Amino acid sequence: MKRLLAALLLMALSAVDAGAATRIKDISSIQGVRDNQLLGYGLVIGLQGTGDTFRNSPFTEQAMQSMLDRMGVSTRGLPLRARNVAAVAVTANLPPFAGAGTRIDINVASMGDATSLKGGTLLITPLNGPDGQTYAVAQGQLAVTGYTAAGEADSITQGVPTAARIPNGALVERAAPGQLSDLPNFVVELNNPDFATAARVADAINARFGKASFDYGKLGGPDRPVAMARDLRSVSVLRPPNIPPARFLAILGDLPVETDSPARVVVDQRSGTVVIGRNVKISTVAVTQGTLTVRVTETPEVSQPAPFSDGQTVVVPRTDVQVQQEGGYLAVVKGPDLETLVQGLNRMGMRPTDIISVLQAIKTAGALQAELVIQ
């Protein structure tokens, strides 16, 4: 089974290497084309006795009284004991260039001591941006995936019943400032910064748009390339004079680029997961791996005296010590590429926890030619 898994892993890695070219749109984003975060405070009604208690959540009572005052119902000075209302925080992401009338998803989370939002309905809630302006209005029936049930002696909770979601629950009232036509030039930002990848992205754009074409004209020249890598993260691209910006970005995003990545090994000690990058190499090093187990078992015995001997019953200690040692053999590991490294580690029959310890020791010895990231 181990050999089969190793073979499947190597086949997958070979397939990735064979088709390493990736579209620019899949590895980058355009600077200025991003989501905007919205936040609001609202009330959820219709809960079956699982809402906030006004004693522990006075802000819920204040919000409810303010809402009733706006509706012409005066409750000032009257005690409120409703348990079907909960104060919630509403969050959403406003997509770039979303116009008025667009619907977006929202997330709802309880702010008080409500035990569940199941069956509740969110009342109309303005969603504001960091500038204090209202960009969307949320309202609708909550979709809660978690639940809780309790009896006199036991209770059970599945998921998070105090958090919910409303698909298409908010209506955009105002578009975020800024349009695509307002950008003087385009800046392509890489999701995984790397100097080699940034240079290849610039070369691909220049190869496509840097020469004369009867469709789009010539954007750049010998002294002024269309794209230029500014650093390991961003590539500056001239705005085309004869192409609509949206069409230009659509063509640019489909250009294939072969990405590069630094040699890196990521280790998650909690789950025992080890992810080894394609460019990881190990210098020739001798590795011994084994475990020494010492087991001590106490089995006390009771010693009874002979009849009529006037003796005493005593407890006699009995100790059993066993020593077991596994592995301990010496192996030479050299990994000029990922395939050889994986084969060498699998040949030694190491478990994930053992591989983590070996990689840390190899890194300390200076033989691991990669960055070791331990989470």
Automatic annotation (TrEMBL):
Protein location: Bacterial flagellum basal body
Domain of life: Bacteria
Primary location: other
Keywords: Bacterial flagellum, Cell projection, Cilium, Flagellum, Periplasm, Signal
Keyword Ligase: no
Record keyword Membrane present: no
Transmembrane segments: none
Signal peptide: 1-20
Family, similarity comment: Belongs to the FlgI family.
Oligomeric form and interacting partners: The basal body constitutes a major portion of the flagellar organelle and consists of four rings (L,P,S, and M) mounted on a central rod.
NCBIfam families reported for this sequence: PRK05303.1 (NF003676), PRK12789.1 (NF009430)
Role noted for this protein: Assembles around the rod to form the L-ring and probably protects the motor/basal body from shearing forces during rotation.
Name used for this protein in its record: Flagellar P-ring protein
Source organism per UniProt: Ancylobacter koreensis
Gene name per UniProt: flgI
